[in-house]
Structures are given as C-alpha cells and as structure tokens.
Amino acid sequence: MTGTDDVLLVHGGTPLEGEIRVRGAKNLVPKAMVAALLGSEPSRLRNVPDIRDVRVVRGLLELHGVTVRSGEEPGELVLDPSHVESANVADIDAHAGSSRIPILFCGPLLHRLGHAFIPGLGGCDIGGRPVNFHFDVLREFGAVIEKREDGQYLEAPRGLRGCKIRLPYPSVGSTEQVLLTAVLAEGVTELSNAAVEPEIEDLICVLQKMGAIISMDTDRTIRITGVEKLGGYNHRALPDRLEAASWASAALATEGSVYVRGASQREMMTFLNTYRKVGGAFEVDDEGIRFWHPGGALNAIALETDVHPGFQTDWQQPLVVALTQASGLSIVHETVYESRLGFTSALNQMGAHIQLYRECLGGTPCRFGQRNFLHSAVVSGPTKLQGADLVIPDLRGGFSYLIAALAAQGTSRVHGISLINRGYENFMEKLPALGARVDVSS
Ligand SMILES: CC(=O)N[C@H]1[C@@H](OP(=O)(O)OP(=O)(O)OC[C@H]2O[C@@H](n3ccc(=O)[nH]c3=O)[C@H](O)[C@@H]2O)O[C@H](CO)[C@@H](O)[C@@H]1O
Ligand SMILES: C=C(OP(=O)(O)O)C(=O)O
Q: Which of 62, 128, 307, 311 gets the most CB atoms within 10 Å of its CB?
C-alpha cells in the first residue's frame, strides 16, 4: 500500500523548460562502492548521487564493517574497509528485497571472509531476472552455494581460482560478478561474451586504480590476471546516461527544452542517433547536452533494445511516451527483458494506441520469440493523452508515467512515487525547477 505522501498530483500540458543536473550513474556507483570492499585502504568515490540504491549499498557495507563517510566535496564518499573481518552482520535480513546489488557482494566477501550470505534480491520487476549465471560463474571459481530459506549462503573451501567462462548472454551483473571475483582470484580468468556497457568499463577503471590487471578485447572477451592485494581508489563516477535520456524524452514528449548538465555524449551516442531520427533536437557542449522539441511533427521509428552498444533497454520506456506523439506506426522490440512493455496499458488508458505482440517485430529474432512473451509493441500516433490515476510499476515505467502525465491534458494522480527515488536524484525538486506543475497529494 502507498500512503497519501506517496502520491503526486501532476497538472499536465506545460512544456518542461530549463536546466537540471545528472550525477554519477546508478548502474556504476553502487558497484564501485562494493569494489571498495576488495581494498586494503580507503577509497574515495566522487559524483555520487543521493538515490535509494546508494543508501541501500551504504547500509550493507556498513553492516559488513566498512566505514562510509562524506568526503570534502559534495557527492563524495570515503569508504574504509579496514574493519570488515570483525563486523557483525546479524541484521542483514533487513536488506532483503531492497536492490539487485547484494549479489555482487559474493566475490568480495568470499575473498575477505571466506563465506558470504546474500539476502533475497530486489530491483525492477520487468522479467524473471534469474541469477543463475551469477551462481554458475561463482561455482567455476570454486564457490560452494547453499540455498537457504532467506537467501543464499556461500563458501570457498579451497579459495577462489581463475577460470575460463563463457556467459550464455552478455549479462551486465554477471560480468561484474566475474570482475569483482577474478581480480583477487588465483591465476588468470578469461570471460567471453561479456557485457561491455560503459558502466562496466568504468568499474574496470575503478579496479585498475586499485591495482587490478584487466584487459578488454574487441570481441567481448575480458581477461583478468589475479593479484594478491588491492589498494583503494580515487574515482569520479561516469554520469548517468539513463537519467539523462529520461529527461531528454520528457523534453520531447512535453514539447519542451531541457539542458542536462553532466550528460555525456560518448555514452549516449546510440540514444542520440535515435532521438534525432524521431525528430528531437540536441546540442552537445563541454558541460552537458540540451535536448528539445524543434516544433513540427515527430517521426515514427523502428526501435530494438539490445546490449551495449545497442539501444539500452532502460532508455526504452521513457522514449515510448514520446513515440505516442510521433506521426505513424512505431515498432518497439524489447530484446533484453521479456516483460518490459506492461507499462503501456496505463498509457493506453490515457489515450495512447499501443498494441503488444508475442512475435519479434524487430529485424532480429530474439530469445523471447515463440515463447509467449509480449515483448514487441506497435505505437500508433500521434495521440492526445489525458490525465489519469496511475500506479508506478517499476523505476523506468514510473518515470514514463510522470512524462505521460506531464504531456497530458488535465491532472493525473501518480501513486507509488517514492519508487522513482531509487534511480532519479532529487526528482521532486527537478520537476518544479523545469516548470512542471506538481503537488504532493494531501
Ligand atoms: C543495477 C544495474 O546495473 N541494473 C542494470 C543491469 O541489470 P542486470 O545486471 O540485472 O541485467 P543483466 O544484464 O544481468 O540481464 C540481462 C538479461 O540476462 C538475463 N539473466 C541475467 C543474469 C542471470 O543470471 N541470468 C539471466 O538469465 C536477465 O533475465 C535479462 O534478460 O543491466 C540491465 C541491462 O542493461 C539494466 O536494465 C539494469 O538497469
Ligand atoms: C532495471 C533497472 O534497474 P535494476 O537492475 O536496479 O532493477 C533500471 O535501472 O531501469
């Protein structure tokens, strides 16, 4: 149940205009925090956003004896892992279901303590989200895993040894699992079919600063030579390309103009190409990117989500709202998660015309074809959106509802708004700063 303070009234129909700032990436910062566990000295992480996933990982690290304090500059954390061995982890159950990051504690805890307990995971409900690859790779390193009622218990009776692994799919989390385990494992690890998202490259930069030896080939192969000891790091997190794209989509759907300070072109190239094809305009400068609707009709497009360097799946939901305003039929093929289009039914209640299909409607057949998953969509536009009562289903779906409510005529009641804090820093301040007319329900 959500309380009244978890409901936002959005009075739509006003273009978003102005400037906001994005800080470090939600999909890097918590992992860099976990990496600090591997070091023998304190680490400094800069550009850390104040989002729930960071708070959850901070709590977990503190529970494991890592001292976490603010550094000298705003958004800087200093993480000192000196007392991990003597920590008391009795309260770990309180962290069950809070995020997906706890699974990445496996390797670092096995190295430091020889055992690890991982509570049930959280994260967005956008598909089955199994963790079989994670446990398969940990077994390859020598971990023994026991399923318990409230989580997973791991031990490494003979230590962790480097190995040769091929992922069945370039999973982001599993690649990070391998990196965080292999850097201190004995010998060499070769990971093929690895994910190569920018956040993974940034995690590799963090680990290299700590003393790790990691190389990346052009064919999704990552080689790690284990070392005996790692130090601390001093690192500025790469910007959140997912949040930046969300505000870009909001600018387009509301016919506005938003300067996203901190947004970086390099990690957003695929998004920027798609944005331009839809008819959105953008201008890159040294500090950020301005995104705007240049007037006139938007274009329907064919869009297929994919692993990097393809179109990131977390960009999909916000952009779909803008596609409801494009002229003609857009096709969206979601190939990363089997159930990431359910949010469109609420958009249809607002007046959108979005039809879901089980077939692979994109150019490439994917893992979900012929398997009964509604993972393709045809968006027919442009459609006028009307305000509605909306219940936030997941992080990006939730932000999409905010965009739809901002673009719609009339007032929407958006329930479950606090879920957005998981990945969007200070969005309740950013919205009015961009001219959005929003009220916390009373
Ligand atoms: C905290 C974080 O960084 N989250 C991101 C991360 O999630 P996450 O790391 O969970 O996503 P993965 O890349 O692992 O998942 C991709 C696909 O692989 C499947 N899979 C994954 C692991 C496994 O053990 N077995 C399995 O079958 C998943 O069900 C999914 O279909 O990458 C996703 C894909 O870019 C993003 O949408 C998420 O925002
Ligand atoms: C799916 C997402 O995140 P998580 O993996 O944390 O659920 C997301 O950021 O859109």
A: 311
